[in-house]
Amino acid sequence: MPSDTPVIRLTTAQAIVRFLVNQFIEKDGQLIEKDGQHIEKNGQLIESQRVCGAGFGIFGHGNAPALGEALYEARAELPLYRGQNEQGMGFAAAAYAKTHLRRRFAMCTASAGPGTANLLTAAALAHANRLPMLLLCGDHFATRLPDPVLQQLEHFGDPTLGVTDAFRAVSRYWDRITHPAQVMATLPAALNTLLDPADCGPAFLALPQDLQGWAYDYPAAFFAPRLHRIRRPQPDPVELATAVDLLRQAQRPLIIAGGGVQYSAATGDLIAFAEAHAIPVVETIAGRANLLWDHPLNIGPLGVTGSDSANVVAAKADVILAVGTRLQDFTTGSWSVFAQDSRIIGLNVGRHDAAKHLSQPLVCDARAGLAGLTAGLGAHTAPQGWCQNAQAQRQIWNAYVAQNTAAGNGVPSYAQAIGAVNALCGPRDRVVTAAGGLPAEVTANWRSLGIGTVDVEFGFSCMGYEIAGGWGARIAQAETEADAETVVFVGDGSYLLMNTDIYSSVLSGHKLIVLVLDNGGFAVINKLQKNTGNASFNTLLADCPTISAPFAVDFVAHAAAMGALAEEVTDPQALAAAFLRAKAADRTSVIVMRVDPHDGWTEQGHAWWEIGTAQTSPRTSITDARAQIEAGRSQQRVAL
Fold first, then answer.
1. This prediction's pTM
2. Could you read off the pLDDT of 133-164 as tens digits, one per residue?
3. End of a domain among 172, 206, 229?
4. What is the number of other CB atoms lying within 10 angstroms of the CB of residue 483?
5. Fewer C-beta neighbours within 10 Å, C or N terminus of the chain?
6. What distance in Å separates the CA atoms of residue 407 and residue 417, rounded to the nearest whole number?
7. In this protein, which residues make up the domain named Thiamine pyrophosphate enzyme N-terminal TPP-binding (predicted)?
8. Is the peptide bond before 225 cis (omega within 30 degrees of 0)?
9. Nearest to 19, CA basis, from 229, 202, 218, 230
10. Per the domain annotation, does 602 fall within a domain?
11. Residue 47: pLDDT above 90?
């Protein structure tokens, strides 16, 4: 570089951290949130927030000496939360980004070898859910002088191949830094990926242990504060005109509202669009709480874990406007919930999602697309009878949910627990769950009280996300809505898989309310076994032939040992009283209740779902179940 260029001599690790703490975010020229930072734009000082709002880290020999040194010096600007395991840290980072609607992300750092490998599942979750997450992970030495080093995997024919290469499949951006100067190209590229509305996902940087500490004279300008803005791609005029024509011709139009509506901050725009044109709205799992539960145009959740109301209306719709959804199989009922001749308009910022199943693509930002459609449709509205029929279906579903969630006699159900908690939540309380039977039960039965307050992780359906994700969500929530609660629903199976971030929440002072609903094993898969004609096998603890004597875990004592307040209740009424105590408490509370593993499931609202079954078996229950499942295939759309 020219000799008169101002430079700063920093290690590679110091340069990475200094770059991160000087990146700020705005959207649409407006302040997102105040944190005392000021950036000059067009000659004016404006307040902004750091785009990398937090870090999660576990140190080892692969990241503590150099990257740890850099993070220590920046601890005031970039708070680093100590995780209990790397996978949980990644889940917390994913939930942090989701809570901030992808406008802020968290960084994760792990040591070389198993520490880094533990982040693979979390990276896959973030990739599937299109969530930004920056992974800074230790790698073997760039010089290779000490090879093979502790925890290095040796590939005899390729010395460059290691654990970090496994992240190529689960990252939107991947790089291995081999020279300090590389970060000047890599960091902006990684940040562009993290903030891109279409390509958003994990960015992974492999950092050789020696290179982290190598010094280089960086141009000072590289570390100047920068203000970023998430772009809003505008619709193509031809695609927009085609979509308008389809909606004008529709006799039975329907809107599917996905998670992308929230990431675009377009929930208000979607509601206004639906109201202006009298079009019913159904929600995906990721799009739950796009509308409040009692909005007259909210017809319910769609698909396999949906509602009868949404599925009945979807089957009759002739034109479907899919906004901000990737149309995964639980939304589409493995493509069985729509009429064979219905037309789909894919309004999505990602071209891959916009064109699925021969949809008419409308590739643009959700807010921009809805604005264009509104202008094109003018005063046009859907036929009055269509909307009224859809609303009548929703009233029937509301009555079912009220009955399904009401406390009754006998062993409580998931739905009854959900109803008891739902009735006591405030409009900004956030509910978090994932995997097992709870995503279906929460999606079907939860009545959304506030926009964007439901996080059902079903993109990767990852056990263990619940408590760790709740912790990350609470950290983000505390930055904007400190008085709201974060409520976690978790089954006993997921709790046993990953529970140590109860301890994290206690240590960091980020209060959670955790509902542990114990059904004695992996009951939802036991239900699947029975529904496909199989015997109960290796799912419920009572049905595991390798278990000599089932043992009941004392979840209360376990949670209390990690510093949480904990109690067990036996019925929904006692659960409600315990929940009020938890809301009044000053730290994380865990409430345990046993639920029925066999009965009490939400039986209505399900669409057909394609599942692999045995074509031949000595058991007639298997072949009979397969025949019944295959009979539903007649409704499955085929993209020709």
1. 0.96
2. 999 999 999 999 999 999 989 999 999 999 99
3. 229
4. 9
5. C
6. 8
7. 56-151
8. no
9. 218
10. no
11. no
> Following CA atoms 159, 164, 169, 171 in sequence, which dihedral angle do they give, to the nearest 10 degrees?
-140
Please count the residues of the chain: 640
Q: Does pLDDT of 445 surpass 50? A: yes
CB 611 within 8 A of CB 312: no
Identify whether residues 577 and 624 lie together within a single domain. no
The CATH number given to whatever domain includes residue 581 is 3.40.50.970
Question: What backbone torsions phi and psi does residue 363 show, to the nearest 5 degrees?
Answer: -85, 105
Residue 245 and residue 352 in one domain: yes
Q: Which residue, 112, 107, 111, is CA-closest to 122?
A: 107
pLDDT digits (tens, 9 = 90+) for 236-257: 999 999 999 999 999 999 999 9
SS3 293: coil
Q: Which of 56-65, 150-159, 212-221, 486-495 has the lowest mean pLDDT?
A: 150-159
Q: What are phi and psi of 296, to 5 degrees?
A: -60, -20
Which DSSP string corresponds to 499-528? -THHHHHHHHT---EEEEEE-SB-HHHHHH
> Is 2 a domain residue?
no
Residue 578: closest CA among 453, 431, 421: 421
- At 31 the pLDDT is 44
Mapped onto helix, strand or coil, the DSSP state of residue 32 is: coil
Both tokens of 405, joined, read 């969630």
550-to-57, 90, 540 alpha-carbon distances in Å: 37, 32, 10
Q: How far apart are the two ends of the chain, measured CA to CA in Å?
A: 56
Instruction: Tell me the pLDDT tens digit for each residue of 178-222.
Output: 999 999 999 999 999 999 999 999 999 999 999 999 999 999 999
At residue 544, the pLDDT reads 93
In this predicted structure, the answer to whether residue 97 has a pLDDT above a threshold of 80 is yes
Q: Indicate the helix (H) or strand (E) that contains 390.
A: helix 384-405
- Give the number of other CB atoms < 10 A from CB of residue 23: 20
Name the residue range of residue 150's domain: 7-229
